[in-house]
What we know:
The chain has helices at 10-27, 50-71, 95-108. By secondary structure, it is mainly α.
Amino acid sequence: xxxxxxxxxxxxxxxxxxxxxxxxxxxxxxxxxxxxxxxxxxxxxxxxxxxxxxxxxxxxxxxxxxxxxxxxxxxxxxxxxxxxxxxxxxxxxxxxxxxxxxxxxxxxx
Length: 109
C-alpha cells in the first residue's frame, strides 16, 4: 500500500487547467450578453416625489419666518445652553449617550 500523496507538477497542472478551460469554452454555445444599463437612460428616470417637494416648499418659508423671529429677539433669552433654576421642567440632551448609541448601531449593522 502506497501512502504517498500524489501531487501534480507545474506542467500537469497547466495541462489540466487548459483542458478544463477548453471544455468550458466548447460547451458554452452562446456568447455572454452585454450588461443592461437601462437605468442610466434619461428617458427611464424616475420622477421626483411631488408630495415631498410640496412639503419642502411649504417648510422653507416657515423656517425662514422662524429664523427672522429668532433674530429679532434678545440672544440671552433664547440661549438653550443656560437654563435658569426657575424654568420648571425641561428636557436635557445627553450627547455622550447619543454618540454611544450611534457607534453601537454602526458596529451592529
